[in-house]
Amino acid sequence: MMIIQIICSYLATIGFGIIVNIPHRALNSCGWVGVLGWVTYLVIKMANGGTMLANAVAALAIGLSSIFMARKLKMPMILFNIPSLVPLVPGGQAYKAVRNFAVGNDLAAISNLVQVAMIAGAIAMGFFISELAARTYFRITVKH
Amino acid sequence: MTKNDLIIETILMAGKIMIENGADMARVDDTLTRIARNAGIDNPKIFETTTGILMSIPEQAAAQVEPIQKRTIDLEKVSLVNQNSRAFQDGQISLNEFRNNLVKLNISTPFFSFWLQLIAAVIVSVTLMIMYGGSWHDIIATAFAGGVGYSCYYLINNRLKIRFVSEFLASFLIGVIAVLFVRLQLGAQIGMITIGGVMPLVPGVPITNAVRDVFAGHFLSGMARAMEALLSACAIGMGIAFVFRFL
User: Fold this and answer.
1) Do B112 and A18 meet the contact criterion of CB atoms below 8 Å apart?
2) Hey, is A9 helix, strand or coil?
3) What stretch or stretches form a coiled coil here (chain A) (predicted)?
4) Which of A19, A21, A98 sits opposite B76 (nearest CB)?
5) Among B90, B108, B126, which residue terminates a domain?
6) Closest Cβ opposite residue A81 in set B112, B202, B208
7) What's the pLDDT at B93?
8) Which of B105, B128, B207, B217 is most buried per CB count within 10 Å?
9) Residues B124/A15, Cβ–Cβ less than 8 Å
10) Structural domain count of chain B
């Protein structure tokens, strides 16, 4: 089961990378960043960590590893974190919200929307912490 | 053309290419300031938003403005500008060569062909459907929905150049295909097929950049990007809602 998930997340990340036209030599490492993010998400979810924490930590993992890849390959960081982020997008909840609004079930729709907003917030939080950690680290190690 | 004019022209062109193709503002700011420093201007004044760049050199009275009207996504160009800037910093190319390279890469950077993108979109749809816990019966339906949806999105975006309408029509088509396949007993869950099919259309670049811009202190650009992402998401949602209301 886990192997299927890993293969799928690798392919999905590379697929989205092709859609936004990232350079060829970044594709492979981008795929692995995506796998790392998705596996982190799954592991925390399986350990009953909750959706928010899972999303936040997965975004943190993606942020840190894409900073690492960006330094290593000397390419902009967004090449790695945009495609890797796509599996974390709350598609399921957004879909439920739209369906409930269309059917006229407004209360359920609003609760779904709140979930979407909270997941988006959790992902933003994860990125923020990764950026903070990276900046602090580079400020300590690289003295200008 | 004096040297200062050349510097300003090069910097504005580099900034324009980067912003047009989906770079985040912190990166643009960093690159442009670096180019200016390496060209010999100690204290360049550059102000950039998602819709335009302003630049002046302190000792000169003149300033230049570069409006940015179109916004597409092509991260290879962003990466190439970055590479050229690095080469310029290391002294491998002169400012003139840098400018010529920018003109060249803006016209002739290869994009993945449409067929490859279509295959990529199908792969994204199918793999994400499986990852979200969909059943294997829905693979054909999801592949079809994702492929048709992405083709529609691509054609409208490239031929007619209307934003948001392309997302709306594409997600509408995806919804119709999902409902049809389930009615014909060729798929199991409408929800999973739709979610998978819509995934290639997700505004991933504006979402990520909105977050990064806001945290980097570029509030104007961050809000503009968030608005863009929100409008795309709403267009997708409306397309799907249409299907539920009338089918």
Assistant:
1) yes
2) helix
3) none
4) A21
5) B108
6) B208
7) 85
8) B128
9) yes
10) 2
Q: With an 8 Å Cβ cutoff, are A19 and B205 in contact? A: no
DSSP track, A12-81: HHHHHHHHTT--GGGHHHHHHHHHHHHHHHHHHHHTT--HHHHHHHHHHHHHHHHHHHHHHHT--THHHH
Name the residue range of residue B65's domain.
Answer: 3-108
B163: left (phi over 0), alpha (psi -120 to 50) or beta: beta
Per CB-CB distance under 8 Å, the chain A contacts of B138 are none
Residues of chain A in contact with residue B242, where contact means CB-CB under 8 angstroms, are 102
Instruction: Spell out which residues of chain B touch residue A20, defining contact as CB-CB under 8 Å.
Output: 22, 73-75, 204-205
State the pLDDT at residue B114: 86
Confidence (pLDDT) at A143: 56
Report the alpha-carbon distance of residue B230 to residue B223 in Å, rounded: 10
Asked if B138 and B220 sit in the same domain, the reply is yes
A82-98 burial code (b ≥16 CB/10 A, e <16) = bbbbbbbbbbbbbbbbb
Considering the domain architecture, whether residues B216 and B142 belong to the same structural domain is answered as yes
Residues B65 and B83 in one domain: yes
Higher pLDDT, B150 or A135: B150
Instruction: Scan for tokens 């919200």, then name that residue.
Output: A97
More confident residue, A132 or B2: A132
Instruction: Choose the closest CB to B241 out of A77, A81, A102.
Output: A102
Give alpha helix (H) positions in B110-162. Answer: 114-131, 139-155
* Predicted confidence (pLDDT) per residue in A111-124, tens digit: 998 998 899 889 88
Average pLDDT over chain B reads 86
User: B225 exposed, middle or buried (CB, 10 Å; 0-12, 13-18, 19+)?
Assistant: buried
Check if A99 contacts B (Cβ < 8 Å). Answer: yes
